[in-house]
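dumping this here so i dont lose it again. seq + smiles for zinc ion
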Amino acid sequence: MNDTVAGCNAQPFLEGWFTLDAERPQLLGNRCVACGTVYFPKLKSGYCRNPDCDGERFEETPLSRSGALWSYSNAAYQPPEPYAQVDKDAFRPFAIAAVELDKEKMIVLGAVVAGVGVEQLKVGMTMELKLGALADGKLTWMWAPAGAQA
Ligand SMILES: [Zn+2]
């Protein structure tokens, strides 16, 4: 099973949420031009949520590709739609990681790449952003232990 290779024609699950660089994907947030607060998902419009800031201009910014594993869980049941659905028998449990991004210090949830289970995870370990395919072939971001062969 090879779920992590990004084909040339692969489509993102969510347009504009991450880059499609197969080797070094990055989540895309945005940053308040006035105070530098970073948002992910992107703040669409309106005012900065920093109570001390009245900024209303935001620029796209790529986020840290790695962070510290903050918490994790095991998804033993298929998530509901809009998660791509597969036959009950074809569903494989996977791990979910909450990772504190190195620079932004925000927690970003994501599935853990295929082949890495909760028994291989440890709070505090360094996790790295990867791309992986959902059941319908669309790409999304996933977390992998840093340095692991995905
Ligand atoms: Zn601001």
